[in-house]
Amino acid sequence: MPKENTLPREVLRPKSRVNAILTQVNRDNRGAQLVLSRTAPQMLTALLQKEVPEIAEQIIDIKDVARQPGLRAKVSVKTKDHRIDPVGACIGMRGTRIQAVQQELEGERVDIVVWSDDPVQYIISALEPADVDRIILDEDTKTADIIFATNDQLARAIGSQGQNVRLASELTGYRLNMLLEDEYNAQIENETKVYRDLFYNRLEVDEDLAQALVDIGFTTLEEVAYVPAETFYDIDGLDDEAIDAIQERAKEAVIADELQKQQTIKEPSAELLALEGMTPAWAFQLAARDIVTVDDLAEQAIFDLHDIDGLDEKTAGELIMKARETWFD
To answer: In what residue span(s) does the Transcription factor NusA first KH domain sit (predicted)?
Structure first.
C-alpha cells in the first residue's frame, strides 16, 4: 500500500492488520503485485456496505462518493423502499453505524446526503447544513450560481478551507459559484448593461428596445439574427416589418464580425507550407500560434509543438530539424 494511499494521520507498521480496498493488480515476470488503498472512494463504499445491512441487501443504493481522505466525505444515497429513511439507516441508532465507519477512517467526518435526479434539489442537499436561498442552474455547462441571503449561510456552505463546497461540487458534478444576494444582483446588472449596450450600438435601436431584447432573453447578435420571428412578439410595439429590420441588421453585424475575425487569422508562409513533411493542417495550427515562417519553426523546441493535433514528438523533431537546415544553407 503506497504512502499516498494511506490516511494522513495514520501510521502503519509491517504486519499491521488493516482494512483496505484492492485497487490495482500489477503483473510482471516475478508475479503479481496487489495495490491497496484506504483513500479511494470505494473504501468508504465498502465500509458502509459492511455497517449498513440495507446497503448490503441493496435496499439502499450508494449513488456518489466524494472524499477528502481522513478529513471529510459526502455520500449520496437512494432508497428503493420509501418506507425506509436512507439517511437515518446509514447513520444508525444514536449514530452507531456511521461512527463505526468514521473510526475506521481515523475520524473522517462522513455526511450522508439524499440523492435526487433533480440537480437543484441534489445541490441543496449536498450543501447542507447551509440554507440556500436560490439556485440558477446551467445544465449545458454543468455550472450553478448558488445564492445566499446572509454571510453566515455563505460561510457555512463554503466550509472550512472550502471543504464543504468542494466536496458538494465533486459529489454533484456541478461547478458551484457561491454568491451573496447583493453580489448576484450586481453581477446580473453588469451583464444586463453589457447586453443592452451591445444591442443599442450594433442594431441601431433605442435603449428601451435594447433593454426589451435583453428582458426576453437575448444575449448575442446570433440569437437575434436567427431565432424565429415569433420570438419577438412579446415585445410591445414591434410589427413584422420592424422585426425583419432588426434581424437583418443583426445578420449584417454577425457577418461583419466573422469577416473581421477571418482577417485577423494568420496564415502560414508559402515556405512553411512547402517544408518537407509538413501538412496544411499542421501549418495552419502553427500559424495560429504565431509560428508563421520556417525560421519561426526552427526556433521551437519539440515541447512547443506538443498541442498540435496529429503531430507526434518524432515528427515534430524531424520538422524542426528540417527547418533548421536553412540556417546552414
So the answer is: 38-115
